[in-house]
Design a protein that fits this description.
The structure holds 2 protein chains of 2 kinds. By secondary structure, chain A is of the alpha/beta class. Chain A contains 6 helices and 6 strands; from the N terminus they run αβαββααβαββα. Chain B starts with a helix and ends with a helix. In chain B, 82% of the residues lie in helices and 0% in strands. Chains A and B meet through helix 6 of A and helix 2, helix 5 and helix 6 of B.
Amino acid sequence: MKIEEIMVKKLESVEANAPVYDAIEKMVDRRIRSILVKPKDEKDVYGIVTMRDIVFKVIGKNLDPNKIKVEEIASKPVISIDKDMDIDHVISLMNKFNIARVFVSEGKEIIGVASLFDIMGASLIEKARGGHVA
Amino acid sequence: MLLDKVFPGGKTEQKVIDNIKKHIKTLCSASDCFKRALEKRDKDLMFCVPDLEREGDAIRREIISTIYEGAFLPFLRPNICRFVEIVDEAFDVLEDAAHEFEYLYSELDKEIEEDCIKIADMNLKMSEMLFIAFETLFGKEDIREKNLAIRIYENKIDEIKFDLTEKLRRKEVKNFWEGKILSDFIADLTHVSDVIEDASDYLYIMNISLR
């Protein structure tokens, strides 16, 4: 199975120069744990801000999320994989880098995201189908 | 395997089992047709859903009649009838969604349409999984993992439903009926999975009661 088959196409993103509060709002509203940070310009690359970044780098240090820009706490470049990559390979990469979700790219464009939960669900469904054709 | 133990190869029992399989397969066909009509934005193609629902009704009546003629041990009959009725409810909800699609005032917005197609696709996969789950009653495979797969699909649909509700709230509607039909269409489309999940849960309970 390829990662493209199980990835979620809906991506939430935030501008690099937006305040962290904007990212928090989107993450709370959408019930997500990480958000994609858009490149500032053509030379820039995609980044990511996770709940951990917000809690440890802003809230835990008593900083005002309205005054900190997203780009200050974002991790760049974001780890992305090709849409044709096999699930087994993705699992070993996620294990190696100790990450819970990966972004999926087609060329330079990020087209989706897959989490450990998505991979677990897809694997269980595949096992349950067991090659059956109803 | 379990049902095999309860009825030693009776003709009427086999007829019921064959018809239940036919019933679920008809649900798969209706779900597939619904999805294709949605993808092609073809309101005429959507008429296949009420046609298949009527076919499903006829199969359901035959199953219930055969059971009341004496198929299966009495303690099993209510459970089998209830399972068949839940599957039939899935047909009804899908049919309601098909009618509402026919009455939609305008074409669906692109982003709403994408979500609806995703849900229709998952409804189809769930009905296929229900068929596989039913077959496990006669095999050695574990029904638990089929039941879990159905619950995973249902959770995914719930997530999409949450987003869809957000999108619908932002959508401007021209009059009461346009809003009501669109809202009912989404509500029914997302309710099919709940009913299939209920049917799967019932199958799981039947499986336990037969042990």
